[in-house]
Design goal:
The chain is mostly helical. It has one domain. The protein contains 1 helix and no strands. The radius of gyration is 36 Å and the shape is rod-shaped. The N and C termini lie far apart (about 125 Å). The relative contact order is 0.04. The mean pLDDT is about 85.
Length: about 80
Amino acid sequence: MGAAAGSLAGNEDLAREGRRQQAQQLEALNTKSGALGERDKELTARDEARRLRDAAARAKAGRKSGSARRAEVRASERRARPDP
């Protein structure tokens, strides 16, 4: 009986150690998951900032080219007018 009891206690120790290792692995995975989530947010924010910057640059270029076109039209209209 003594050997059986010792074997049972050894099995319980192994089971406890297995549960402890699983808990550590789960904690490590949760930590990694949180870090990956933060990284994903940072990448999304960086992508959005890039899109906004590019859109602002396109809008600015559009305003400049629109302004240049309007000035060109006004100049050509002045040239097309007969001299008084």
